[in-house]
């Protein structure tokens, strides 16, 4: 993929927001080359209802990633939709949202992938840009660590360690590609613990949460009657979240993202740290990268 990609036509979806429990209508629309991913809150009356999908607009990362513009218009839980855009390599989309939160769907990115594939993708006559990592950038946050490293093949490597018999220690390395995303990552659902869920409900949160849109763990194990989609669904979902959070950089990041016990908070801190260090990255076009790949293969061969 060396050119920018948008949708061939609009796509309509609707579903329940995980935290508000409210039904939200969402329309994905083709957008001009270079506009990026932009959310528009069609239910608001304020002057500026548009919220660009950008790392520096991230306000909260407590239960999901929320972005907010200067006029206070916000959109919550963007990460699974952003992961679908990142996974398929979609650059320019206007996301109209009649409500405060992206629908939870089944808790994974698969329904968004199906929506995008149903609408069809279309390349635009403009070069696709990426952020190439030039030197290591490492961050730490409350026992979590993450690092961006230069790499020939973009990848995300995550390890988790939960004091829970079903999850325990899991590690997964995903080399970014649309086919790989569909097969290995997109279907991995979000997960939570029944005890924490009950606390959230009392706080007026997670009102839309159910066995329909999350893997729920209790003392007995997995509460969902259908069980897990992958034995290591948990770490795969952490990869999905990281892919979505990293895509808020505004372009794909060409490098290795290696994270231990990551969450939305450290994913955003890592992107901010990378982008703040002008010597740690540079803009490249995908065709430059393809040529560089050809040149290094020729040298080796
Ligand atoms: Zn998630």
- What is the radius of gyration computed over CA atoms, rounded to a whole number of angstroms? 19 Å
> How far apart are the termini?
24 Å
For the largest beta sheet, what order do the strands appear in spatially? Answer: 2-3-9-4-5
**Number of DSSP strand runs:** 21
Q: Helicity, in percent?
A: 25-40%
Average predicted local confidence, pLDDT: 94
Order of helices and strands: EEEEEEEEHEHEEEEEEHEHEEHEEHEH
> What about the largest sheet?
5 strands, mixed
- Which ions and ligands are bound to the chains? zinc ion
Any overview of this molecule?
The protein is of the alpha+beta class and 301 residues long. It has seven helices and 21 strands. It has helices at residues 79-88, 110-119, 178-185, 194-202, 233-246, 264-276, 286-300; strands spanning 3-7, 11-16, 23-30, 37-41, 50-52, 58-60, 66-68, 74-75, 93-97, 121-127, 129-133, 137-141, 144-149, 155-161, 169-175, 191-193, 215-218, 221-222, 253-254, 256-260, 281-285. The strands form six sheets. Strands 2-3-9-4-5 form a five-stranded mixed sheet. Helix 1 crosses helix 2 and helix 1 (79-88) crosses helix 5 (233-246). The longest helix is centred in the last third of the chain and has 15 residues, at 286-300. The chain is globular, with a radius of gyration of 19 Å. 42% of the residues are buried. The model has no long low-confidence stretch (mean pLDDT 94). Bound molecules: zinc ion. Zinc ion is lined by residues 79-80, 190, 237, 241.
């Amino acid at each position: 993929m060396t050119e920018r990609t948008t949708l061939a036509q609009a796509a309509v979806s609707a579903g329940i927001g995980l935290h508000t429990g409210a039904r939200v209508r969402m329309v994905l629309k083709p957008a001009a080359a270079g506009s990026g991913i932009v959310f528009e809150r069609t239910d608001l009356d304020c002057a500026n209802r548009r919220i660009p999908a950008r790392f520096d607009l991230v306000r909260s990362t407590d239960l999901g990633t929320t972005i907010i513009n200067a006029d206070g218009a916000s959109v919550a839980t963007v990460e699974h939709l952003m992961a679908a855009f990142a996974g398929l390599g979609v650059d320019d989309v206007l996301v109209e949202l009649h409500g405060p939160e992206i629908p939870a769907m089944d808790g994974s990115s698969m329904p968004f992938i199906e929506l995008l594939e149903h609408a069809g993708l279309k390349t635009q006559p403009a070069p696709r840009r990426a952020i190439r990592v030039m030197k290591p950038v490492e961050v730490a946050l409350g026992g979590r660590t993450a690092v961006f490293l230069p790499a020939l093949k973009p990848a995300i490597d995550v390890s988790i360690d939960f004091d829970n018999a079903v999850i325990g220690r899991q590690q997964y390395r995903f080399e970014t590609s649309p086919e790989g995303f569909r097969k290995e990552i997109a279907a991995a659902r979000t997960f939570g613990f029944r005890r924490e869920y009950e606390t959230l409900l009392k706080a007026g949160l997670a009102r839309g949460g159910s066995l329909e849109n999350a893997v729920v763990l209790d003392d007995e194990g997995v509460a969902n009657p259908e069980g897990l989609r992958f034995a290591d669904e948990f770490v795969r979902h952490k990869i999905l979240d990281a892919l979505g959070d990293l895509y808020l950089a505004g372009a794909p990041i060409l490098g290795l993202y290696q994270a231990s016990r990551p969450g939305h908070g450290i994913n955003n801190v890592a992107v901010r740290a990378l982008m703040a260090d002008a010597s740690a990255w540079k803009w490249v076009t995908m065709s430059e990268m393809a040529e560089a790949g050809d040149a290094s293969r020729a040298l080796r061969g």
